[in-house]
Write a structure and sequence with these properties.
heterodimer, A: 394 residues, alpha/beta, 5-stranded parallel sheet, 5-stranded mixed sheet, 12 helices, 12 strands, 52% helix, 18% strand, elongated, disordered N terminus, B: 149 residues, 38% helix
Chain lengths: 394, 149
């Protein structure tokens, strides 16, 4: 036989057939013979064990390690559906196919609902190989999916751990940096106080720069600590009335609002599931930014919220200097600034903290703006607390 | 003329001790400042052992937490467990802002917990207010003779 002839034959008859370990639960030897013959005819190289009752089944599961279970529905000593339960009890994901003389449609549907992979009537055994093949294929795909899910869960776990490590590192580093810096700051200040005008002009200037630098670094470290604390400290989630939060922010920012002549208004705001201190920080940072980056026009800040899908959509709108869309992402990154410190003071930590808080509360934050025509900062928060959501799940 | 007050600073950072001396220099309370640099020396000073047989009995102890040999919390615990030392007011003066350090200090009987301020102005005013409170507003326990161990 030429090699091409062999190849041609592979599809059906010739060539090695895939091996299959089957476990038959069947009291009728003739039926079992017919089932096996059907499988062996064209499709599988079957090694089979035939059992009739629970004890035999349990034994065969251990010794034969079947890839598929073919069970009669009506057995004298055991019920076909009990086979399924026996598999479940052992946590085995082995496809089970009912092979039955007579099985009403209703019963068949019920069996599949309960977890039987498929069923084949004894008078149409020709279907059996295809049914087995499909069951094996499905199981293979299922195991691939499960493996992928497991891998993903592992990755998520690793990521969470390295994130936690990083936060811990940022915290410790910034805390330990403070100690020597405190000395530099205190002593440059002492130098500048005690020796101002006693050295020469340059000395005063140099000491001034050193002292300012140290002070600014202290603020940076404080900011970094504040930022890393958002992740470390366990936020206490509770119902937070955003109206009250915004009123509190209005009070805190009172002097700045007055000085800038800003008009701040808010619509009726919802109660959300969040950490109150953190929500105050979000509204305070956003409103504070609106005041800081105001334009020539009298500043108007308006806060509102609307329901959208499963979230509240908040917006804080101002008519200030706005932001070019190309920087819209950047501004949420820690220490990213768009202006020099002389133009606008600050370290670029406020929006980074907002983003961290909102994302940890299950929302998103972004800005919609054009340079020169005001900004609208938008963020979402889930409508309901997670526990309520969980309880409402069908 | 007002009597001077004895202050023991337990701190291993000479820069901090110098700042404290600077802060209290020339004040009306005329604090006399002694300094030891670790926890073991602190207790030797308080019990007048070793090199410290002539040590004055402090009216106030300013105690850092992060110390070599024997930590501040351990010194505090030893002081507050000793009948002859427990009436001396102890101000914990540390950069730590960890809530467990603060809670533990008070549990062990610290008289107050003060965070070391980062900049000079705050450091000076904090130091002065500690001095003013303990030697101005508060009434200290009678000095009496120190009980020997």
């Amino acid at each position: 036989m030429s090699s091409s002839a062999v190849k041609l034959g592979i599809e059906n008859t010739a060539g090695p057939k895939p091996k299959l370990r089957a476990l038959l639960v069947e009291d009728n030897a003739l039926d079992a013979e017919l089932v096996l013959r059907e499988l062996r005819k064209k499709s599988f190289d079957v090694s089979a064990v035939i059992v009739q009752d629970e004890a035999g089944f349990a034994e065969a599961l251990r010794t034969h390690l079947p890839e598929v279970v073919l069970a009669d529905y009506n057995l004298p000593n055991w019920k076909g559906m009990e086979v399924l339960n026996a598999l479940r009890r052992q946590n085995l994901d082995i496809p089970m196919i009912l092979v039955s003389g007579a099985l009403g449609d209703v019963t068949a549907v019920e069996c599949i609902k309960q977890g039987v992979t498929d069923y084949v009537l004894k008078d149409s055994l020709a279907r059996l190989p295809e049914v087995v093949r499909r069951a094996l294929q499905e199981k293979y795909e299922r195991s691939l999916r499960q493996q992928a899910e497991k891998d993903l869960a592992k990755k998520v776990d690793e990521l969470a751990r390295s994130n936690a490590d990083l936060e811990q590192f940022a915290y410790i580093a910034s805390h330990d940096l403070q100690e020597p810096l405190r000395m530099v700051a205190a002593y440059t200040q002492l130098l500048s106080e005690r020796y101002r005008g006693k050295l020469d002009e340059n000395a005063d200037k140099f000491i001034g720069y050193a002292s300012e630098g140290a002070l600014r670094m202290q603020v940076l470290i404080q900011d970094l600590l504040a930022f890393s604390r958002v992740g470390r400290a366990s936020a206490s989630y509770t119902s937070v009335d955003c109206n009250a939060v915004v009123e509190e922010v209005r009070k805190t920012l009172g002097p700045a609002i007055q000085e800038s002549g800003a008009v701040m208004s808010h619509a009726d705001l919802p109660t959300v599931w969040a950490d109150r201190t953190q929500m105050t920080q979000v509204f305070q940072n956003l409103t504070g930014n609106a005041i800081k980056f105001r334009g020539e026009k009298p500043l108007i800040v308006s806060i509102k919220a609307e329901k959208g899908g499963e979230d509240w959509l908040f917006s804080v709108t101002d008519n200030g200097i706005g932001i070019s869309p190309e920087f819209a992402e950047n501004i949420f990154v820690v220490f990213q600034r768009l202006h020099t410190r002389t133009e606008y003071p600050g370290n670029g930590i406020g929006l980074a903290i907002c983003k961290k808080i909102i994302e940890r509360s299950g929302g998103r934050i972004w800005v919609e703006s054009q340079a020169g025509s005001g900004s609208t900062f938008k963020f979402t928060l889930p409508l309901l607390e997670p526990a309520v959501k969980e309880a409402m799940r069908p | 003329m007002k009597a001077s007050h004895e202050v023991l600073i337990v701190d291993d950072n000479p820069a901090d001790v110098t700042l404290t001396r600077e802060a209290l220099a020339g004040s009306a309370h005329m604090s006399q400042i002694s300094n030891v640099q670790d926890g073991v020396e602190a207790l030797a000073f308080l019990y007048r052992l070793g090199n410290y047989t002539q040590a004055p009995r402090p009216d106030l102890v300013i105690l850092d937490l992060n110390l070599p040999k024997r930590g501040g919390l351990s010194v505090l615990a030893a002081m507050k467990a000793a009948p002859e030392l427990r009436r001396i007011p102890v101000v914990i003066f540390s950069t730590s802002q960890l809530s467990q350090d603060i809670a533990r200090s008070y549990e062990l009987g610290a008289n107050c917990y003060v965070s070391k301020p980062g900049n000079l102005k705050d450091f000076f005013s904090t130091m002065k207010s500690i001095e003013q409170f303990w030697f101005g507003s508060a009434t200290l326990p009678p000095r009496g003779e120190q009980i020997k161990p």
